[in-house]
Amino acid sequence: MKRFTHITPTSIHEVIPLLSEYSRPLAGGTDVLTELKEGLVEPDQLVSLRKLSELRGVTFDAGVHIGALTTLTELSRHPQIKDGPYQALAQSARLAASPQLRNMATIGGNLLQDVRCWYYRGPFDCWLKGGDGCPARDGEHHKHALFEQSPCVAVQPSDPATALLALDATVSVAGPSGTRSVGMQELLVPPTASRRKLHTLQLDELITTIQLPARDGWQSIYLKAMERATYSFALVGVAVAIKLDAGIFADARIVLGGVANTPLLMEDAAQQLVGQPLNEATIAAVAQLATQNAQPLPHTHYKAAMVQRLVCHALATMV
Length: 319
Ligand SMILES: Cc1cc2nc3c(=O)[nH]c(=O)nc-3n(C[C@H](O)[C@H](O)[C@H](O)COP(=O)(O)OP(=O)(O)OC[C@H]3O[C@@H](n4cnc5c(N)ncnc54)[C@H](O)[C@@H]3O)c2cc1C
Ligand code: SF4
Prior knowledge:
- The protein is α+β, with helices and mostly antiparallel strands and 319 residues long.
- A five-stranded antiparallel sheet has the order 4-5-8-6-7.
- β4 and β5 form a beta hairpin.
- The longest helix is centred in the last third of the chain and has 17 residues.
């Protein structure tokens, strides 16, 4: 492993000038430390965020502000998140990883964690690492994409990202020229030839908070299909947020996780719900629409049926 230094600044103003292509923020360390050991990242310096107390915790006004260092355990247990319109977020946090990991893992680091593709994590010079080809396409890929978005078919591994997109979250980012606010679909994007990563955060930027808008009258749910009952990444994750008015869908957001480079907002499927009464026929039609543009790999066909089942189950459970 390459030698590096470690620094623990005490304010965001101290952190920003320290961030560059030669350094890495260290939050809970559950991903970045593994990547250091694997030689996937080789910074000269780790910039610990541990003492940035202003980035911890959850506050409420019209909506919700979540500090980037808030842990998945805190999100999963927060009384005002685990019940009510934001509960998909608490459910997604609770279903992620293991209790020990959730105690360390922060929501900011969770959104920026690297892909779990075994070729990427192993000694393969694949496309996402800057190489030419994708060995997963002709190799072991049963956990990979159902929808193609780029030459890479790895899936976005974050459960909370799927829930946050359903809840229409925005992310505040601090950098050398100030603070900017980005939507989830601007932050988490498919990789391109010139940007081989699944997000748009620059190396000199820091996620500070995540905002959720007011969701009066909404309810939400996150469901996850896994290879085993716990401690496993999503084969498929589904987050659904709906607003019902006298038994008619007034608004809806349906998001799929574990099936593409990014969480996928299924706008056509959600649109199909609006104005419709709640019944089995509506739910079945929406579930069908959620997979209409799927492009399965040879070993990911099974994910289409999983998506449909989870969408049906989510809608049926909520009403
Ligand atoms: C065995 C295992 C199972 C797991 N299962 C799941 C699962 O089922 N679902 C799931 O969603 N996740 C899962 N994870 C991933 C885990 O949730 C993430 O590793 C964790 O959330 C990352 O948070 P962290 O604070 O430890 O980030 P770190 O490891 O500290 O950082 C991750 C990345 O984000 C950067 N970073 C961190 N914070 C910031 C910030 N505020 N601003 C800018 N950059 C930042 C770091 O530089 C690094 O590149 C699993 C991980 C492991 C090891
Ligand atoms: S799926 Fe992506 S990360 Fe995995 S081998 Fe292919 S290019 Fe690399």
